[in-house]
Amino acid sequence: MTARFLYARFPTAEQRAAVDWLHTVAEVASGYAGSATVRMPAVQPLPSGPVVAWRLVSDNRREIARGCRLFASERDAHADITPLLREVRSLVVHAAPGPRIRSTGWFVTRDGELAMMGARRYENRSTALNAGALALRLLAQLADAAAAGEDPVEPATPEYAV
After folding, report:
1. In CATH, what is the architecture of 3-147?
2. Whose CB among 7, 10, 45, 160 lies 3.0–4.6 Å from 18's, allowing a Cys bridge?
């Protein structure tokens, strides 16, 4: 397998890395304000304790993509991954131009809702879209592996996300 899901843990939703995570989601969504095709993911109340998010990482643990929500538990985060794997062929990649020149990212929608976003920015739109397409191909491989009984989520580790 060339990619896995990895959980990112934060001590609280107010921790700096968790706030930055959600800020990036809001930036991606606000870049498309007024568009009928992109909606923010449904927001659920976050607990006062630890929260979890998910990342799609390569074999060398380089982050490829990340989810767009924080969850109270790994089980809740896994429930966000499952429909992506089941519906991978209906996911749509979009370019996400940034405020700076040569700063384009990508994100994926499922039924018009923001489902995941790229982990880095690229020099141009076509490179960003190619990176998003690669992420979808990796998701398709994970979906096939999951159908064969493999677990696409890496075993948990106790460290918090940095």
Report:
1. Roll (2.30)
2. 10
